[in-house]
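hey
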């Protein structure tokens, strides 16, 4: 790996290392209990099996008896649960405006009561299906006066939990800043994904390269999946249907696999990995209906499908890169941008590791947006590679066409080039001069063919001096040549041919000569007749020169 790509990899790893900081900074929730260490953390309870469902305590005084009827638990069930949360509060500050903030996972219903001595009970309703004052967030305002103590009792119900829920009580001002920062990052990331998708759809429309189509579809699915994760359709359009949340995450492996199989050219380069990648097509497609019929297990199954996809995609990208396919380096770096969050987040999604202490959803979205940008770089690099290959192919084709139209001995245009140019529909009226190089056979017989080739090359070099944008010279074969020129150039070219003949005879070829005849193409006369006419006049000129060696007759122009 050269130094440029080493620097790029280091920059990417640095950015990946900063992503948790960005997510953590946007998730800064200064809680009341953080200022009051003696206040306990949130405690979870569940109604004992077979017991009648409990309602909220009538007042704070009934809380102890109420808790006695519940079973303490340490975690919620990720496949769906109905739990009670108790959070003790004491406010040692001068502030009185706070926010009860359930966060960290989707929660369909959050009903809460705030009990304060001598104060009426405050009712809070938030969650996925409830109206909440903060866009894309479950926070709800509460009041706790300076020095006052209180207890929050909340009932949390959801058909599944993507991770363990968290509860905090930040100050209202701090929470608003957090919401503003997070919403800005969320909307910016989703906007970037949507822009990348639309742009590459336009590129596909112009190139018809399916890599751009698959990439655009992958970006659209990624954007839709995270829009649902952050409840954008619910908050903006009132669409509350949890069955659609994981459809997009089952589609991601399918669309990305279609992309990387075509982009990395796996069928031709790595057929075994191409066949193995069908797992990424069949497995998510088979499990996708669980988003509708087994909703509590959909997020666990989607997590497994995504883990298999990322592993196979990374192996395919690294193998293609090692084979020398340069655009694969951006694909691998993009996967790393996904794998770093995935390695942190996915184990927590299935309860294998503790939840991370920052906004894991936003962290993953930022990693996916970086992946989208790097895949865009990969496609740009592919365009660069294809353009270089096209330029090389065009150069080779031009060289082949040049060779096909060139006489190898003399370097003049050959008979094939002459037949293309003579009498072409767009050529207009042309002057044809058919030329015969006299004395070649005698020179070959006396001094050998090598000497005859020298004569041909010297004569061709003289003809080449006559060429310009309007006059072109051709070797038709043997000692026969031709010129094509505008009709008005006849006299000038005839004089030039006389000078060439004199040049050859004054030099090392005293027995040589130049015989020629001319004819004009006309719309009424086929080109073959024009050629025969010029050829006959050349023959007449040759015979006349034999009869009048000292003074050539006037030329039949």
């Amino acid at each position: 790996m050269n130094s440029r790509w080493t620097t790029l990899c280091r920059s990417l790893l640095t950015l990946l290392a900063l992503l948790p900081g960005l997510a953590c900074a946007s998730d800064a929730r200064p809680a009341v209990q953080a200022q009051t260490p003696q206040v306990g953390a949130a405690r979870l309870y569940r109604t004992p099996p077979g017991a009648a469902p409990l309602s909220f305590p009538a007042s704070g005084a009934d809380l102890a008896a109420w808790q006695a009827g519940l079973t303490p638990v340490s975690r919620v069930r990720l496949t769906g649960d109905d739990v009670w949360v108790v959070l003790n509060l004491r406010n040692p500050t001068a502030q009185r405006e706070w926010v009860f903030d359930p966060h960290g996972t989707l929660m369909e219903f959050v009903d809460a009561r705030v009990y304060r001595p001598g104060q009426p009970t405050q009712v809070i309703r938030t969650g996925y299906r409830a109206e909440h004052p903060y866009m894309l967030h479950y926070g709800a305002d509460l009041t706790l006066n300076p020095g006052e103590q209180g207890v929050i009792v909340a009932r949390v119900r959801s058909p599944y939990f993507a991770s363990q829920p968290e509860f905090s009580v930040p100050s209202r001002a701090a929470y608003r800043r957090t919401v503003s920062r997070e919403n800005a990052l969320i909307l910016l990331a989703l906007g970037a994904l949507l822009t990348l998708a639309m742009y590459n759809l336009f590129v596909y429309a112009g190139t018809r390269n399916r890599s751009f189509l698959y990439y655009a579809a992958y970006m659209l699915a990624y954007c839709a999946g995270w829009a649902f994760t952050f409840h954008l359709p619910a908050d903006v359009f009132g669409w509350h249907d949890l069955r659609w949340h994981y459809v997009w995450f089952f589609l991601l492996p399918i669309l990305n696999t279609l992309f990387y199989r075509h982009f990395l050219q796996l069928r031709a380069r790595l057929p075994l990995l191409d066949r193995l990648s069908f797992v990424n097509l069949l497995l998510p497609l088979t499990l996708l209906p669980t988003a509708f019929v087994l909703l509590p297990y959909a997020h666990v199954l989607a997590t497994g499908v995504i883990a298999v996809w990322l592993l196979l995609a990374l192996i395919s990208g690294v193998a293609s890169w090692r084979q020398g396919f340069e655009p694969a380096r951006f694909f691998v770096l993009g996967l790393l941008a996904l794998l770093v969050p995935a390695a942190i987040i996915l184990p927590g999604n299935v309860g294998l590791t503790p939840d991370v202490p920052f906004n894991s959803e936003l962290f993953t979205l930022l990693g996916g947006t970086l992946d989208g940008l790097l895949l865009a770089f990969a496609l740009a690099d592919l365009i660069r590679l294809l353009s270089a290959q096209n330029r090389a192919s065009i150069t080779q084709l031009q060289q082949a066409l040049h060779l096909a139209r060139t006489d190898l001995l003399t370097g003049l245009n050959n008979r094939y080039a002459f037949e293309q140019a003579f009498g072409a529909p767009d050529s207009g009226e042309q002057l044809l001069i058919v030329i015969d190089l006299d004395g070649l056979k005698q020179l070959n017989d006396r001094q050998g063919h090598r000497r005859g080739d020298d004569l041909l090359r010297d004569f061709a070099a003289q003809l080449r001096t006559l060429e310009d944008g309007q006059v072109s010279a051709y070797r038709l074969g043997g000692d026969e040549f031709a010129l094509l020129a505008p009709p008005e150039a006849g006299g000038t070219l005839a004089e030039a041919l006389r000078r060439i003949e004199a040049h050859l005879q004054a030099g090392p070829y005293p027995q040589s000569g130049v015989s020629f005849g001319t004819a004009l193409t006309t719309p009424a006369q086929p080109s073959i007749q024009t050629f025969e006419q010029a050829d006959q006049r050349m023959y007449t000129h040759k015979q006349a020169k034999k009869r009048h060696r000292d003074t050539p007759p006037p030329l039949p122009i």
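The longest helix spans residues 360-404. The chain has 19 helices and 13 strands.
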